């Protein structure tokens, strides 16, 4: 009887473990990304399909207020939205930092920053940090480029850095996100689909 009970417990443990792994699985290149709803700095709940599916995709960027790398890339993020929104790839910025660990990244400070800099894109607060974990985001800034496939689903086609020089935009000679978007405009998969994101680590809740 003890052997039977032990065997049953092992099976249950295996099922629970498998379930947990599925729950915590992060997106990989080629995966279909599900919509989500997070609080935008204007107080509304915002996701990826609020524009009735007219977008060809989204430039999802995990960023924040306080990180020196995020600050260095702020204008470049604004330029990405300005340059590619009309062609169907708007920016969606997400802050997943715990305000207790980084007070400058509180929702109130986010709203102030967005107003001060006149962001033209949503700046969402991932308070539970569930979306960052689902995407597998670990740094700020970190890009996840989504493209609407032939079935109308949003597919992850590029992840990583914006370009190859965080300190000086003028000295960057590889513009990874722009290169990926150019490939997509020619109905090609991005030649460079993954790079290493350079930035501060996301400040996780303790």
Automatic annotation (TrEMBL):
The Thioredoxin domain, residue ranges: 27-182
Signal peptide span:
1-20
PROSITE patterns of this UniProt entry? Answer: THIOREDOXIN_2
What is the top-level taxon of the source organism? Bacteria
Entry keyword annotation includes Signal: yes
Output the InterPro entries linked to this UniProt entry. Answer: AhpC/TSA (IPR000866), PRX-like1 (IPR047262), Thioredoxin-like_sf (IPR036249), Thioredoxin_domain (IPR013766)
Q: Which UniProt keywords apply?
A: Signal
KW GTP-binding (keyword) present: no
* Cited Gene3D superfamilies: Glutaredoxin
Question: Could you tell me what this protein is called?
Answer: Thioredoxin family protein
Native species of this protein? Rurimicrobium arvi
